[in-house]
Amino acid sequence: MKKTFFSLLWDSETYYQEWLRDKETRDKEFIYDLNLQYIYEEVRRLGGFGDRYDFRDIFLYSCAAGSTVAYRQRIMERLYENPELYEAALEAVSCISDSQSKLERVCGTKDELKKKIFFLHMLYEFLLRMAQVYSCLEKLISAEKLCALGISKAAEEITGQEAVERMEKLRSYLQLLQRITPDTIVMNKGENQICHSAVVWPEEEEKSGYMDRLMELVSFFLDDCSMPVKVYQDMDITCFDKKLQEYICRQQPEFPKETEMLYQAYRKFDFWPYIKLANELVFYLSCIRFRKEYEQEEFYFTVPKCQYGEESKVTAAYDMVLGINLFRKNKGCKAVPNDFRFDRDGRFFLLTGANQGGKTTFIRSIGLVQHLAQIGMFVPAKGAVVGMVRHIHTHFGRDDEAAAMVGRFEQELERMRKLLNDLRDGDMVLLNETFTSTQRMGAVILLGRLLKEFDRKHCVGGLVTHYHEIYDRLEEGSFYSLTAGVEEESGRMDRTFKIIRSDSGRQSYAKDIAVKCGVTYDQLVGVLKAAEEGGDLDVLF
After folding, report:
1. Model pTM score
2. Which of 76, 32, 41 shows the shortest CA–CA distance to 367?
3. CA distance 97 to 53
């Protein structure tokens, strides 16, 4: 019988399979350019769930289906707004994580009777805890019909009639074990209370005294004695454990047979759906912990409205990478926010202006808002309406070893060829200082042709560049101009880090940077003159 597909991350198995296929063929450059790995590590760190859970792929590869994004947003919002639901989800992850650890110990236990007793005890505790958790989850998420349906189906495994009968058999078995386990154990020991070879081999005496062995034993056979033992320590069978097994079997000769019968009946219990549930819940819980920690330092977020179409409008967005750096330095939310939009008055911008004026930070913030929105997460902005895209393509200029070996311009061309090959109608494209490694005129011509192709495919996005003349080569309508703001006072240029919609002014305000770096005007003139006389104008570009 085919099991019904259920996930807290995917509202449809079809969309899940499409995402899997798409993930395998994606160009990974956008992960590097947008610093997504850095953000993931921060979310995972603040989540605090350790190495067992890894939601890297869910975080790094977005969804193209709007219904999946909306599904995740509803679950994320309910967990964020409802403390009772949040705690229930947390308890579910804790219970499943504990059971995973115990299953690993079961697999590593060599003594068959010990393994079976411990498995049955672990299964009983798991079912008991999960029944309580599911009761709360089903009640609190009932407004999300698909989610509630899935939880009900999963809950049937632990709360249905068959589950009730299974629980009763396990409860009776464990009660029998408690009855036949002695309250006290009399053994050969000296006046110093050190256990002797009647129950512990002589070579073990230096490693473990009587009380230590007794505590290990009690933790194995349930916490039914007066010892304050709460944590099971998995060890190979010892003669001390074996003595107690022999005692119990003498008291109840049918005990091994009953243990075997129950173990065979329940040993194939399917834990995988619950492990999958925990992995998915960890994504939500980690994102929420991240948000709450940052909100305490006055960072702000919003749940975006995602829709199909080319129109997007985002207000007061800031770069999350910069935000993380500020958070870690205890500086609070001092990132300068900016608005951006894509609509019929302009789908693609050209951003020019002051060097070190926040252009790269701005274009990265656009990609991050789009990406975080399409994984179902809240975004670093005060308001956001986001048009869904299939893919985000990036091309950020960089210097690296591969570029040095192959030639930076050749590498840029290769990356751009791949981008164009993967490009689909309506995709987002973000270019940052592309083709700065070749002559200016050649770069202007190449970028002009690229932008016309992006326009033909109705792409949205932007280009950060110092090549002001590109804009003159484009037809009005789809493209518009942005500049990085500066304030001039007493001959000094102060960067405002505000990105405004206006003509470029054809300035990069590099003079003050040269002064800060100790380069004089006369030195610059000398370099330019020497280059001109030598016919080597490439040094300018």
Report:
1. 0.81
2. 32
3. 9
